[in-house]
Amino acid sequence: MDFFQKIAENRILEAIEAGAFDDLPGKGKPLKLEDDSHVPPELRLAYKILKMADCLPPELELRKEIVRLQDLVAAMPDEAEKLRHLRRLNFYVMKLSMMRRVSPLLEEHELYTPKIIERLEGAPAPSGPGPAPQR
Question: How far is 74 from 86, CA to CA, in rounded Å?
Fold first, then answer.
């Protein structure tokens, strides 16, 4: 152990004995460790600060609004009101598409993954418009 580590360890032990850490928020609760290995090391601190400040990039804010509107439209019984919200939803999807190089619909793998798996496993495809699956 080098000299500065020894000093730091001694001061931490003294603070523990004096009870300096007894009233900290979250005491006794597990730490929320997040995997940030996908974030470049030089950006991790900035991302953490933005996350703690509850700041999202405009693109993610828009995605959250799109998901909220999709849920709202799905639960709406009034057709006229549903049409009004669908127009707003389409506008947000178009706005998101313009912000990105790739269409957000191509990234929505959670919509298509179950359908692909269903077809690969040989289960009957859901009925609806479109060509019948070939066997």
Answer: 10
Q: Is 86 helix (H, G, I), strand (E, B) or coil?
A: helix
User: Tens digit of pLDDT for each residue in 58-116?
Assistant: 888 888 899 999 998 888 888 888 889 889 989 988 888 787 665 555 565 566 677 77
Residue-wise burial string across 31-53, b where 16 or more C-beta atoms lie within 10 A, e elsewhere: eeeeeeeeeeeeeeeeeeeeeee
What is the H or E stretch that residue 102 is in? none
For 72, residues 6+ apart whose C-beta sits below 8 A from its C-beta are: 85
Q: What is the largest CA-CA distance in the chain?
A: 75
Cβ-based neighbours of 27, under 8 Å, separated by 6 or more: 21
What are the residue boundaries of the structural domains of the chain, listed by start? 56-124
User: What is this structure's pTM?
Assistant: 0.43
What is the pLDDT at residue 52?
A: 83
Q: Determine the 3-state secondary structure of 38 from DSSP.
A: coil
What is the percentage of the chain residues whose pLDDT exceeds 70? 80
Query: Rounded CA gap, 24 and 20, in Å?
Result: 8
